Amino acid sequence: MLQVLLPAEFRDDHWRLVLAWLHRGHEFNQTSWTQALDAFDLLKNAALLTSTGLIPFPVVYRQQVDDRYADAFIARLYAIEPAALARESVMAWSEVARRLEADLLAAGLVRHDSLFHLRQSKIVLAGEDKIIVSLKLE
Fold it and tell me: What digits encode the pLDDT tens for the residues 49-92?
């Protein structure tokens, strides 16, 4: 069982923005980016409850994204010729996204069907300052 603990302020519109960013963030305009950044800021107060304990979302993000991909991704972007930046940056983004999904699966933090479960089968329990989303990923 995996539980995702979200701040009470994190609503469905924030969730939709995060999912949209995962699938087509490279197409976001300035307004969409601003809204997505607001959603990501709220995730600073999220956490994952796994069979091994509670992991704050910023720790998951740092370990699974920043530490593994940020430096190489930025270096790759800097190496791209300006004329090819739009095309090749999307390819670089896609490669990182595919590798990240595999890493999260290997770490036991998500399963292939977890996004379906999160959208379709969430059980929301409201607390004072958190919403607990229980995902049965058995």
Answer: 888 888 898 998 898 888 999 899 899 999 999 999 888 888 88
106-121 CB burial, b ≥16 within 10 A, e <16 = eeebbeeebeebbeee
Do residues 18 and 36 lie in contact, with contact meaning Cβ atoms separated by under 8 Å? Answer: yes
Task: Report the 10 Å Cβ neighbour count for 53.
Answer: 8
- Assessment of whether the complete model's pTM goes beyond 0.85: no
Q: At what angle do helices 30-42 and 12-24 cross, to 10 degrees?
A: 120
Beta strand ranges found along the chain (DSSP E) = 2-7, 47-50, 53-56, 123-126, 130-135
Q: Quick one: three-class SS letters along 106-134? A: HCCCCCCCHHHHHHHCCEEEECCCEEEEE
Indicate the helix (H) or strand (E) that contains 18. helix 12-24
Tens of pLDDT, residue by residue over 80-125, are: 999 998 888 888 888 887 788 788 778 777 655 554 333 333 333 3
How far is the C-alpha of 110 from the C-alpha of 74, rounded, in Å? 26
Distance CA 25, CA 70 (A): 16
Phi (first) and psi of residue 10, to 5 degrees? -80, 105
